[in-house]
Design goal:
Blueprint lengths: L6 H25 L16 H17 L4 H18 L1 H18 L21 H19 L1
Helix pairs in contact: 1-2, 1-5, 2-3, 2-5, 3-4
Length: about 150
């Protein structure tokens, strides 16, 4: 498996798995319930998107050097992903919440038998969720690459 020798890729995948696992543990600690489905869901604390791109950029920086064009590419890519998580994806989640509320309030107007599916609302991230994801990612990238 040559892919296992690709340090930046391994770091990114491990950071994503770590962030998703933290989500499950946080639900267990705060809500006292086992929620393994959080392993495959987007949104929430910490941001696995931010963790994976931060780990990728960190591992690239350690492996190839901080002045290498590969690091620049990974850093710019990561910045865009993190910006998008707090902007467009978060706004889409907020809009989905409003639409779900409207559908629930207007449910009496729907034809009998028509049951609209609730929209997914946990899409984007708050700034603290992205920052914690960033920290998880940098730490993972350093552990894997050093």
């Amino acid at each position: 498996m040559m892919l296992l020798l690709n340090t930046p890729l391994v770091a990114a995948v491990l950071a994503s798995v770590a962030a998703q696992s933290i989500k499950v543990l946080l639900v267990l600690a705060t809500e006292r319930r086992w929620a393994p489905e959080r392993l495959l869901e987007t949104g929430g604390m910490p941001s696995s998107h931010s963790a994976s791109v931060a780990a990728l950029a960190t591992a690239v920086g350690v492996t190839y050097g901080w002045a290498h064009p590969y690091f620049a590419i990974a850093a710019v890519f990561g910045s865009i992903v993190m910006y998008d998580a707090t902007g467009i994806r978060r706004a889409a989640g907020q809009q989905a919440e409003l639409i779900n509320d409207l559908v629930e309030e207007l449910a009496h107007l729907f034809d009998e038998g028509f049951q609209p599916q609730a929209l997914k609302t946990l899409l984007g991230h708050t700034y603290p969720q992205v920052v914690v994801g960033l920290v998880v990612g940098v730490a993972t990238g350093l552990v894997v690459a050093l």
